[in-house]
Amino acid sequence: MNPQTLLLICFYAFGFVTVAAALSVITLKNTVHAVLALVLTFFSAACLWMLLDAEFLALVLVVVYVGAVMVLFLFVVMMLDIDQEKMHEGFVKFLPVGVIVAIVMLVEMLGLIGVRAMQAQNLGANPATAAGVSNTAWLGQALYTKFLLPFEVAALVLTVGLVAAVALTLRERHDTRYESASQQVKVDPRDRVRLVKMAPVHPDRSHITSCLARCCSASPSPACSSTART
Q1: Distances 100 to 83, 104, 108 between C-alpha atoms, Å
Q2: Which of 16, 51, 55, 195 is deepest in the core (most CB within 10 A)?
Q3: Whole-angstrom Cα distance, residue 224 to residue 204?
């Protein structure tokens, strides 16, 4: 089979799976099934990126979104007790408005794609192919040489956003107990546990026999009689 024909078949197959899985995300009633369909959507999109020689984007899509974000979403959805009936209340009522908004967005996207297609210019050969390296290697070299400053600024902005999110959600509560890891590390086991050696204590046999006799006299039975004789 011609490699171009096989590439075209794989492209249409992955594209069909991506579209079908994306439609399943918004049509399935079970939330867990919808999240699993979204995972399939991301994975099929990563396969399309692979066909377009964008290995880095494909791996990032699988590792970050499928491997981390979507697994987190799946566990959150499975842990929450979601009322399916309340979620679907008013779906038919707002369906016409949603369809109109979707059609308007589709027309705008098609118009934008058409304008960009008419103004398209030849970008030349693939720089990674021209350099004789993979897409991931070329992108890494470009990020850490030509675009090092924007890359560091983006990392700094993400770090500030993470710290701000933690600071906004952090609330000190006085009705809970907290443990100090530094104090636990400084604790000496000899100050917490003391071993005491004591002489063994042997029970008095006569005392045991008298107790059994009193119990058997209160409730006479063959078993008690034999126990008392023993």
Answers
A1: 28, 6, 12
A2: 55
A3: 20
- For the chain, the C-alpha Rg in angstroms (whole number) is 36
Q: Which amino acid is at 156?
A: L
Q: If you write DSSP's letter for every residue of 145-196 in order, what string do you get?
A: TTTHHHHHHHHHHHHHHHHHHHHHH----SSS----HHHHHH--HHHH----
Give 202's DSSP letter: P
- Spatial distance between the Cα atoms of 8 and 201, rounded to a whole number of angstroms: 88
Segments making up each domain of the chain, as ranges:
8-82, 129-166
How far is Cα 16 from Cα 44, in angstroms, rounded to an integer?
9
Q: What is the pLDDT of residue 165?
A: 86
Q: 163-188, pLDDT tens digit by residue?
A: 998 888 777 767 777 777 888 888 87
Q: What is the pTM of this model?
A: 0.55
Kindly tell me if the per-residue pLDDT of 226 is higher than 50.
no
Residue type (1 letter), 209 = T
8-82 CATH fold: Four Helix Bundle (Hemerythrin (Met), subunit A) (1.20.120)
Q: Residues in the chain, how many? A: 230
Locus of tokens 């050696």: 197
C-alpha 164: how far from its chain's center?
22
